[in-house]
Amino acid sequence: MSTINKCLFPAAGYGTRFLPATKAMPKEMLPIVTKPLIQYGVEEAMEAGINGMAIVTGRGKRALEDHFDISYELEHQIAGSDKEGLLEGTRRIMNRCSFSYTRQVEMKGLGHAILMGRALVGQEPFAVILADDYCVNPGESVLTQMVGLYEQHQCSIVAIEEVPHAETYRYGVIDGVEESPGIFRLHDMVEKPQPEDAPSNLAIIGRYILTPDIFEIIEQTPPGKNGEMQITDALLTQAKEGRVIGYKFKGRRFDCGSVEGYIDATNYTYQLQS
Fold first, then answer.
1. Average pLDDT, integer, range 223-238
2. Tell me, what DSSP letter sits at residue 100?
3. β-pairing, 172-180 with 244-248?
4. Nearest partner of 136 among 211, 241, 33, judged by Cα
5. What is the pLDDT of residue 144?
6. Is residue 94 part of a domain?
7. 117, 148, 179, 201: most buried, per Cβ within 10 A?
């Protein structure tokens, strides 16, 4: 049984880099071959032993709720046909997981989106998955690896990976001490620094395990980069107390928030399934 029972999915963003495709469709519903990004994220959480899915949505995101619900008309139409088995994966998810939803009315940054999930998560440690960071690994999933690490350290954990120095302006970037191979005790984090100001080339990607005190810290943290509530700034408060670990995960990440990363992920997954 996992020590982490809930996974939060911030999913209120507009996905403007994929317009016009995302004009009426949530970016989290963009398919990698035949499954939407959000489903891959939910399946990763399930593999980590998590069954409580909490999704922060926004206007125009109703398709996310509909995807994890019964479609009586569709199921009636394909009943008894060779298409019926194609819904087996979503049926398994619906049978095993509970889903709760809330709306982020204003887009005020990732920290704010996570804060909006407070009522869904409660006072317990929880995971966070950003669905447009699509992670794959032949062995344990990235989140499964992180849950195992949380059981040892009982503190907030962020997934990190090396990125080109020229691209640090796109990420939260960490500085810390490598306590054991791939495991860093963090003491500094900078949100989207210019390459010359970046403390390292180790960037935070869209997998987190957070302790529940993060909600109060977010509330007390002033707006940061672009006037938004940054989760990086809130985590820095914990890091200064030695309570954040950066984990250089095993696996591969595709940035499906970019068109190039999305195409690469689709090609990779199609070849894997062929």
1. 85
2. E
3. unpaired
4. 33
5. 96
6. yes
7. 117
Lowest mean pLDDT among 9-13, 88-92, 176-180, 255-259: 88-92
The dihedral formed by the CA atoms of 168, 173, 178 and 184, expressed in degrees to the nearest 10: -140
Domain CATH for 34:
3.90.550.10
With a CB cutoff of 8 Å and minimum separation 6, the contacts of 272 are none
Both tokens of 93, joined, read 């998810």
pLDDT in tens, 158-203: 999 999 999 999 888 999 999 999 999 999 998 888 999 899 999 9
Domain that holds residue 210: 6-273
Helices 88-96 and 37-47: crossing angle in degrees, nearest 10, is 50
Q: Name the token pair of 95.
A: 């049978």
Q: Return the SS3 of 121.
A: helix
Q: Which two tokens stand for residue 4?
A: 């982490």
Residue with tokens 């985590």: 235
